[in-house]
Write a structure and sequence with these properties.
With 210 residues, this protein is α+β, with helices and mostly antiparallel strands. 37% of the residues lie in helices and 18% in strands. It has 2 domains: 50 residues, no CATH class; 153 residues, minor pseudopilin epsh fold (3-Layer(bab) Sandwich), CATH 3.55.40.10. The protein contains 3 helices and 9 strands. The strands form 2 sheets. It has a 5-stranded antiparallel beta sheet with strand order 3-2-1-5-6, with helices on one face. The protein has a 4-stranded antiparallel beta sheet with strand order 4-7-8-9, with helices on one face. The radius of gyration is 29 Å and the shape is elongated. The two termini are 49 Å apart.
Length: 210
């Protein structure tokens, strides 16, 4: 114990003795007991706050990953059941949003309307669709989904395309096209501070939270 701490305790002891002398000895906590307990509680609180924050971050990441995984599963099932290619776009049209959309064109001949700027706007393509006529696509768009405000998608996250045959393809960016996923596939990464959570998708449609 350093000299300053010893001096403080000595002063508290003097105050405690003075109170006992004036009011008589009473059963219960002394002033030193109360100060010591308060100090211990402060230390425990300081230790607990980071742990609680980590738990809450993990819960937010887990919940966000489950929501994205469900949207991907829905898009895959919708592609097979409706015999229509479906896409899931991320950061659509702004950061943290994502949407399942039906192709207006086809994988080999996509329509100009199939761009991110068009298909991610409910003002242009509302949910639910205005009608269910097969000749007036799209009929199977989902609503725009939003991540928790504290979460974000990884910078390498690209849109996915699900075909009726069960295969999964990924936006090839500036290189053009939507090649089928090969090998271990790709990962959709969610970020919360320094913590991350990933959903892996391979070329045959297997979707897993890591």
């Amino acid at each position: 114990m350093n000299g300053r701490a010893g001096l403080v305790l000595a002063q508290l002891s003097a105050v405690d003795r003075n109170l006992r002398h004036r009011f008589g000895a009473v059963n219960g906590f002394t002033l030193i007991d109360v100060v010591t307990a308060a100090a211990v509680l402060s230390i425990l609180s300081a230790m607990a706050v980071p742990l609680i924050r980590d738990v809450l971050d993990g819960m937010k990441l887990g919940n966000g990953a489950r929501q994205v995984e469900r949207e991907l599963q829905t898009a895959r099932l919708k592609a097979v059941s409706s015999n229509r290619p479906m896409r899931v776009r991320f950061n659509c049209p702004v950061a943290g949003q994502y949407r399942m959309v039906e192709l207006v064109g086809t994988p080999s001949t996509p329509a100009a309307a199939d761009s991110d700027g068009n298909r991610c706007k409910e003002t242009l393509y509302p949910y639910p669709a205005a009608d269910r006529e097969p000749v007036t696509l799209p009929n199977n768009d989902g609503p725009i989904r939003r991540l928790d405000a504290a979460l974000s998608f990884g910078s390498a996250t690209k849109a996915l395309e699900f075909w009726p045959d069960g295969s999964v393809h990924q936006d090839n960016g500036a290189a053009g096209g939507w090649p089928v996923l090969t090998g271990t596939g790709t990962s959709i990464t969610l970020i919360k501070g320094s913590a991350t959570k990933s959903i892996t998708v391979n070329g045959i449609g297997k979707i897993q939270i890591q």
